[in-house]
């Protein structure tokens, strides 16, 4: 049925309010199209378009040249969208559409063109035309703006891809691209592919091939950055950031290698923060990126933490007691990065005794005894270690040597005395046993010779005793 005259006047008043207040309320009374020359129709009631593309909604209309015995003339055409609360608003008054909307009318055909579509443009749109006697509405056209995405899942060596859109199933066909080349068209949003790590895939809606989805692909070679840039000092905070181009987004894992030590995972996530960094944090770091389509690892980056010298340790060689006249070698060692410079000092002396890690003292004397210190220094700080050197006149080594020498002399003397005693004993034994061994006769000459021999032997024995 048609509007009554009262309804027509109400509609005209509503339109006047719309022109002044920029809001149009949908009349509760519908108009049956096609009676007495009144008609409006649109090319489609549901449209699915892709984000970033351009859509056109076309409606045609007719109206009688005369109505209620009066001339019926066109006054205005409008495109409206329904917003929250059920209000219909003139598109030309909505800031979100500024610069993107065109209303093209001619020969009783009006086309709404919306460029650079946004997902927020998904809404219900209505065409309306107004004559000097009535207002006519077209049926609503529902626009769905979809941001195409490819969903990835793996099944063995095959990859299942799904083109995700907000369009109703069966409303459109899907075009698949491999490395930007069209390889498949299907009404199903699913597609199986045997994936290679260098491949990339995307999908598009038929008729919107110039607006495909973002491609999916394995992670590209990751890059690692260090902040802050430059020399790293102990106690500062350092952030390592891993970046890799990948879709779906990659997962990140950080690894550290200390020299030839085993690899260890230290952190999951694109950023590794080393707060209050210590010398033990020095080493080689790299990150690994991974998604359902593959994995890559970055080049290693070296973290070299600089720090001031730690408390030096001093070694003395020889380590035993220092004898007067001997040579002494002092060695100073300190953990530092960069390497420390060493200076040797003696207490109560202004000028340094030596520089360098090793300090040699030859012909050590009593005046060399005292307190010494080793200073280790680099550009980040200084550390000192103090020690004492004392010369000894009689060292335990000397005493041991003297004892050994004395014992050796005593042993030699005892051996000599023992030898003399043995000789004497042997001589006495010989004198005692001589008469028994010699058979005596009455020859006086023999007796004299024997007597003379005995006297000679007694004389030798007395000389031996002396």
Description:
This protein is an alpha+beta fold and 466 residues long. The chain has four domains: 5-145, Immunoglobulin-like; 148-205, no CATH class; 223-306, Immunoglobulin-like, CATH 2.60.40; 313-392, Immunoglobulin-like (Sandwich), CATH 2.60.40. The protein is built from three helices and 38 strands. The strands form eleven sheets. Strands 1, 3, 7, 8, 11, 12 and 13 form a seven-stranded mixed beta sheet that branches. Strands 23, 24, 26, 27 and 28 form a five-stranded antiparallel beta sheet that branches. Strand 11 (123-131) and strand 12 (135-137) form a beta hairpin. The protein is rod-shaped and about 185 Å long. The termini are far apart. Residues 1-33 and 436-466 have low confidence and may be disordered.
Descriptors for this entry?
466 residues; alpha+beta; Immunoglobulin-like; 7-stranded mixed beta sheet; 5-stranded antiparallel beta sheet; 38 strands; signal; transmembrane helix; membrane
Give a concise summary.
It contains three helices and 38 strands.
Output the CATH homologous superfamily of the largest domain.
Immunoglobulins
User: How many domains, as an integer?
Assistant: 4
Using the coordinates above, name the CATH class of the largest domain. Mainly Beta
User: Approximately how much helix is present in the residues?
Assistant: 10-25%
Report mean pLDDT, rounded to a whole number.
81
Shape: rod-shaped
The number of strands is: 38
End-to-end CA span: 172 Å
* Coarse structural class: alpha+beta
What does the radius of gyration come to? 57 Å
Low-confidence stretches: 1-33, 436-466
The main pleated sheet reads as:
7 strands, mixed
Shape-level CATH architecture of the largest domain: Sandwich
